[in-house]
């Protein structure tokens, strides 16, 4: 696949009428890097719905992220051209279990999902995988390689997350545009191989 994603960082906020659009989700547990990922790749100023985390939420949300002062309460939204006439709309969906109904709403019309996870909190990905699978969305796992996170072999990651051999697994640095682009290319390639041919 040609390296179109992100090749034109400034196509402007408007879209031409002849462009085709693909909707995909970026899902993952809280702190996995969803907002960071959408920020790193979007050609438009990403729409964020971050809210300051309140004391009331500290027992529910992750208390072990002392530097994290905001959390996504509805979604992140970004846009990136996959090619001159193919546009990917990215919806970052909140990871906390109490927002799963939002995830289900966001999944309408989505062709697939990038499931982002932090290797320090692999177990937090299970409930998200359950929802993504229940929604019937094809997905790719992207392990966000945080600096101080353990580096597992692919075999170990697959075993721990119980991944089907056909599910692509990539590692990425969500802060890096090129790395995010590579992960999204794997997702789109996966969608091309899993989605049925369009009816003519
Ligand atoms: N070192 C490192 N930090 C990251 C990476 N991705 C995200 N972060 C940081 O991890 C924190 C949580 O990321 P965020 O995008 O808000 O997670 P979200 O809850 O999934 O939207 C933020 O402070 C990010 O700056 C990464 O790849 N490497
Ligand atoms: Mg977020």
Characterise this structure:
With 200 residues, this protein is of the alpha/beta class. It has one domain: 3-Layer(aba) Sandwich (Rossmann fold), CATH 3.40.50. The chain has helices at residues 34-41, 100-106, 126-134, 154-161, 177-194; strands spanning 20-28, 47-52, 70-83, 86-92, 112-117, 139-144, 169-172. The protein has a seven-stranded mixed sheet, with helices on both faces. α4 links the parallel β6 and β7 (169-172). α1 (34-41) crosses α5 (177-194). The longest helix has 18 residues, at 177-194. It is globular. The model is unreliable at 6-11 (pLDDT under 50). Guanosine-5'-diphosphate binds next to α1. It holds the Pfam family ATP_bind_1. InterPro entries: Gliding_Motility_GTPase (IPR052705), Gpn (IPR004130), P-loop_NTPase (IPR027417). This is ATP/GTP-binding protein. Belongs to the GPN-loop GTPase family. Keywords: GTP-binding, Hydrolase, Nucleotide-binding.
Task: Show the helix and strand layout.
Elements (H helix, E strand, L loop, with lengths): L19 E9 L5 H8 L5 E6 L17 E14 L2 E7 L7 H7 L5 E6 L8 H9 L4 E6 L9 H8 L7 E4 L4 H18 L6
Parallel strand pairs: 1-4, 1-5, 5-6, 6-7
Antiparallel strand pairs: 2-3, 3-4
Helix pairs in contact: 1-5
Bound molecules: guanosine-5'-diphosphate (GDP) and magnesium ion (MG).
Keywords: GTP-binding, Hydrolase, Nucleotide-binding
Organism: Streptomyces doebereineriae
Protein name: ATP/GTP-binding protein
